[in-house]
Specification:
324 residues; alpha/beta; TIM Barrel; two-stranded antiparallel ribbon; 11 helices; 18% strand; globular
Amino acid sequence: MLFPDYRPRRLRQNEAFRRMMRETVLAPDDLILPLFVIGGQDERNPIEAMPGQFQLSIDQLIPVVRGAHGLGIPAVMLFGIPDRKDPLGTRAYAKDGIVQKAVKALKDQVHGMAVITDVCLCQYTDHGHCGVVEGDRIDNDASLDLLARTALSHAKAGADMVAPSDMMDGRVTEIRAALDESGFSQTPVMSYAVKYCSAFYGPFRHAADSAPKFGDRRTYQMDPANVLEGIREATMDVEEGADIIMVKPALAYLDVILRIRQEIDLPVAAYSVSGEYAMLKAAEKMGWLDGPRVMMESLTAIKRAGADMILTYFAMEAAEMLQQ
């Protein structure tokens, strides 16, 4: 019965009013750019299912990161593609591993950009799983030391933050202890705490060459039907020493982001994953969607749901639009 005394459209009638009334404001500061790094020189391999994304050798990675820094993006997330693989993923924690070398190069040549590293074994193991395989199962506890060694090797290389994505129980405790005992008590841990076993990861697994060679990851990644389990996972990782809690994927899990934001008082990250990116790019190519507008609407929705930071392959495109 408020109408006609109250007319909401009064405050929508021009762009100045709409800006003044806007409740959720997206900024480059909210964005983290994921990047894939490989060995060699002059390598810039297009990722077919992710138009505009590449596997980059370190010499090609550096100018991309400089460009992101110039757009106001505060951080990148590095995923390494090793030169060889083995059952224990030894290149994940090798001193001369691809991520370790990339971190050193970026910290030396791109000042002011935070470098976050993904901590997992799936890209480095010949079986493609995120932990040690014993027979036909993933041995949780045998994997913890290797994950901690990987995180510590990244910190020693100069990483500003480490981000375990494996979903092994107890890995935040092991990583936090390894960092603290080696003098890296100031290195934060961004935990992929609420990571679902999602079909939205398909393009990433091709990009990072990380698809499992047998079975799937349902025994360690979460069932997409569950929310309360995600709260338990996040709570455990907070108690184990995580500094940031991540929800992955993002767009199909906005309700989960909201619940985690309501339950957890740490910063919350959300990963807008490769499948989200690929779908929008495909629809844009076909002329079915206004790509830039849907990109910005999607990222705004993720922030509106409660994410403090968004990992997204759209980071540079979005930052460019936000500066216009």
